[in-house]
Specification:
Helix 10 packs antiparallel against helix 13. This protein has 372 residues and is mainly α. The strands form 2 sheets. It has a 3-stranded parallel β-sheet with strand order 1-2-3. The protein contains 14 helices and 5 strands. The structure holds tryptophan.
Length: 372
């Protein structure tokens, strides 16, 4: 294990973020040349429902990678949802909802290269977390800026052991299938740094000349950040979002109460008019147009007109996705079976990795001549 001292000499957060961005740009270029050289592992914690922000921020990107022929593994991080006490009473609804959304948007486990699974159903993945935990120090876990932010947001509530260690679990999510590319936002950068550290330390300790785990890279998406309908961060479990699964009428009701401002002349100015500009941006993403042009077409017809245009744009963009989702909802046993198949596929891969890990750690007790 690296000493505490060397960890303290790590480059500053901003310098290492610039490096992450540069590496991410290079990777995007490489994917164009050689999509089969990458194995993507990404996912989300099972809190609440996927919304239009997820669609334009990450799901569309996954579709694009799938289309390019990149292997796509998606973890539904249901154990990670336990770090969020409010959300943790509705985990099943969230997990099954994600599966419906993935299928409805066109992520296709039938193509043999796309897989999604819930990590609580993959015991060998979870077991990898134990040796990985031995490779990090408590103070390294306590320094993680994303975890620190989440703890700060919780206010005074006590911090669980899982909250502190979930980034190590996430490393197991990535490395069990030798994922080498993780699409995600800036907030995932500290978690990726930890995954890289664990991969390197594992190799150093147990696989000196093998480089058994390749340190994975973060792939940043260039999608603009969408705010919620109230101008604050769009949240999975907040009512300021537009879930993919809403009906057209429910979408209209949500947008009707969106925050705007008192200037009837609609203009795209994210600095000075964040709420109005955010609604324009969402309409623009749905219609694949420029937000400035949509603003010009509304002119001084005011916020009501903007909301009407936005409602039509969202409902039009998601019409076929929602129709597919409804059709899938009519056959829930099929949907649940697909998830269980994904879980089983993930377990087979994780078991093979765990077998290698046991051998490398010299903890394989079968002995010669006995296979299992
Ligand atoms: N941490 C991610 C989130 O906050 C979810 C997640 C769990 C994840 N395991 C992962 C993301 C592995 C990428 C790779 O939503």
């Amino acid at each position: 294990m690296e000493s505490e001292e060397s960890a303290d000499r790590a480059p500053s957060a901003t310098a290492s973020f610039a490096a992450t961005q540069q590496r991410s740009d290079e990777v995007w270029k490489q994917i164009g040349h050689d999509p089969r050289g990458f194995r993507v592992l990404t996912g989300e914690r099972a809190t609440g429902l996927l919304h239009v922000g997820h669609f334009f921020g990450s799901l569309e990107n996954r579709l694009r990678l799938q289309e390019l022929g990149v292997e796509m593994n998606i973890v539904i991080a249901d154990y990670q949802a336990l770090t969020d006490r409010e959300a943790s009473s509705r985990i099943e609804e969230s997990v099954i909802g994600f599966v419906l959304d993935y299928l409805a948007i066109g992520l296709d486990p039938g193509n043999g290269r796309t897989m999604f699974f819930a990590h609580s159903y993959v015991p060998s993945l979870n077991q990898l977390m134990l040796p990985f935990l031995s490779l990090v120090t408590v103070s390294e876990l306590q320094r993680n800026p994303t975890v620190k932010d989440e703890i700060a947001q919780m206010g005074t509530r006590a911090v669980s052991g899982l909250m502190l260690t979930y980034p190590v679990h996430q490393t197991a999510d990535i490395l069990f299938c030798h994922g080498n590319l993780v699409p995600g936002g800036k907030d995932q950068a500290p978690h990726l740094e930890l995954a890289r550290t664990i991969a390197r330390r594992f190799n150093e300790n147990y696989a000196k000349d093998k480089q058994y785990f390749a340190p994975p890279d973060l792939l940043l998406s260039d999608a603009p950040l969408l705010l919620g309908l109230d101008g604050r961060k769009m949240g999975k479990s907040l009512s300021n979002s537009i879930p993919i699964s809403l009906s057209a009428d429910e979408t209209a009701t949500r947008i009707k109460v969106a925050k705007t401002d008192s200037d009837r002349n609609i203009s795209y100015d994210p600095e000075r008019r964040p709420e109005v500009s955010n609604l324009l941006l969402l309409a623009a993403l749905c219609r694949q147009e420029r937000p400035e042009d949509i603003a010009a077409s509304i002119g001084d017809s005011g916020g009501g007109k903007l909301k009407q245009i936005l409602t039509e744009a969202v409902n039009e963009r998601f019409r076929s996705i929602r129709a597919r989702r409804r059709a899938l909802e009519a056959d829930m046993s099929y949907v649940r079976r697909l998830l269980l198949e994904g879980n089983a596929r993930a377990e087979a891969i994780a078991a093979a990795t765990l077998k290698d890990v046991r051998a490398l750690m010299k903890m394989a007790y079968e002995g010669p001549g006995i296979d299992k």
